[in-house]
Amino acid sequence: MTKILLINPNISDSVSDLIRAEAQRSAAPGTEVEVLTAPFGVAYIETRFEALIGAYAAAQLAAEHHARFDAVVVAAFGDPGLAGLREALPCPVTGLTEAALASACLLGNRFSIVAISQRIRAWYRETVQSYGLEGRLASIRGLDEPLADIGSVQGDQGERLVALAERCVAEDGADVIVLAGAPLAGLARSLKGRLPVPSVDGVSSAVKHAETLAALQPGKARLGSFAPPPVKPNKGLSPAIQALLGRAR
User: Fold this and answer.
1) pTM > 0.85
2) Contacts of 84 (CB under 8 A, 6+ apart)
């Protein structure tokens, strides 16, 4: 049995419920998924500083629980802390953005991202740049209204999200739509057939890519930029993070 841990770096239990539902629908028979919610942080990550907080929350949960799993998913768009967790954890790690963009690149040449806010777009663009895919990014469009409830954004803003996706195709030349963020988990599934181009979801993409990575058993980097962090003195860290930092190569 393959076991995948999805970490929601936000504090919203309603979003974790969405993540869990889509992960369970996407998982293959024999794959077990578990979703954990950040014990501290913000309702949903929208800025670079909030991502910094979410990254530490994700690191804490990963340090405490990774040993029981074959792969770990950072279940927030923008992948806060992903690169650092890839250094530290002995198992494969991916994130919603990385996985969704990988799926999008297999379905078309240029992709657009539909997001839940305007403010979030700059950070998303930087994330796409960090993966070397800015040349394939057609656009990022986001909702321009305050969110009443992050857990109900699909129901509250569903038609506006569809309209944004259609504009990405008609005006920006998108071949694929990436529906961004854990609050939109499952939306691509429910919109199947409504959009004129393929759409992808970060949670379902991450689960399928995590299953593949676990099955490949590629091994852990011992050298190079993703080798484990060197052992050095530290202070004020939780026992779980201390143990992770102190593990042998």
Assistant:
1) yes
2) 55, 59
Alpha-carbon distance values, 194 to 109, 198, 217 (Å)? 20, 10, 37
Position 100: which residue type?
A
What 3-state DSSP class applies to 37?
strand
d(CA 78, CA 168): 20
Distance of alpha carbon 72 from alpha carbon 146, whole angstroms: 31
Nearest-angstrom CA–CA distance, 139 and 167: 10
How many whole angstroms separate alpha carbon 51 and alpha carbon 10?
9
Choose the CATH number for 108-201 among 3.40.718.10, 3.40.50.2300, 3.40.50.12500, 3.40.1260.10.
3.40.50.12500
Q: Which helix (H) or strand (E) holds 177?
A: strand 176-179
CA distance 123 to 142: 12
**CATH 3.40.50.12500 residue spans of the chain:** 2-97+205-245, 108-201
Could you tell me the pLDDT band of residue 110, with boundaries at 50, 70 and 90?
Answer: very high
CATH node for 2-97+205-245: 3.40.50.12500
